[in-house]
Amino acid sequence: MATVLKSPPSADRDQRPVEARRRSFARWFSDHMVLLIGILVLVYMFVPIGYIFALSFNQPSASATGHTSATGQFESFTWGNWTSICDPEGLCDSVKLSLEVSITATVIATVLGTLMAFALVRHSFRGRAASNLLIFLPMATPEVVMGSSLLAMFVATGFDSVLGFITIVIAHVLFCLSFVVVTVKARLAGMDSRLEQAAMDLYANEWQTFRLITLPLAMPGIVAAALLSFSLSFDDFIVTNFTAGQSVTFPLYIYGAKLKDFPAQLFVVGTIMFLISFVFVTAGEVWRRRRTRAWS
Fold this sequence. Notes:
The chain is mainly alpha-helical. The chain has a domain at 90-262: MetI-like (MetI-like fold, Orthogonal Bundle). It is 73% helix and 0% strand. It is built from 13 helices and no strands. The chain has helices at 10-31, 33-55, 80-83, 91-122, 128-135, 137-140, 143-156, 165-189, 193-201, 206-234, 238-243, 250-258, 265-295. The termini are far apart.
């Protein structure tokens, strides 16, 4: 008897490429899942920044009182917000005060925090474990508690009559100090001490070793701590609200503007601060890569 060979149904032949494509897509998705999640997180983070950048070119319509107030909706394009940044009363003064406070607090906190980090990492002394624990308390303390406690301390010591620049700087140094110590400590803990030992074996004294080896190696951590301190100080509202007195920093100005007319120039200042931060971070990364390439 002759046997008849049966060919597979055409439906099975059509199904095989579909299943292969599905398996290929599943494999590609599993290989790139982390990248896709990272892209989604970055988009989620930068959408508000892009929204602020777009609104900095927005021409809001005049209100019933004759003032222009940003409504959050793009109405018409204009360059006027960028050419009239200081038109809203007190805006540039608040930005200037915030910059002065942030730069002063950053310098003081970075110097003190760096010295504390070197002491905690490089030296053993009585109370070292307790000091490491106490460093984290300002980071874990709610800002409302810290601000009210600082205000109570200033009132008790007679500083309530001079609330302003000095008290704001003291408060900002207090909470920035912990972030500086933690950041610089992480950098120092990852440094190879054999490089310093090799320098001293080559007849470098302690100052030369610190200036030529230790400080350049620790500088990325110090710069990162300074940038973090500046950002935290510049945009702080809660602690500043308790310790500012009659002084008005940029975050306090934004809060006050929210209660009445909200000028579009605020979006311009926010965009400028973001661009400055972006330039500093990019320049730091380029400098780090060049040094790494030069050492390798």
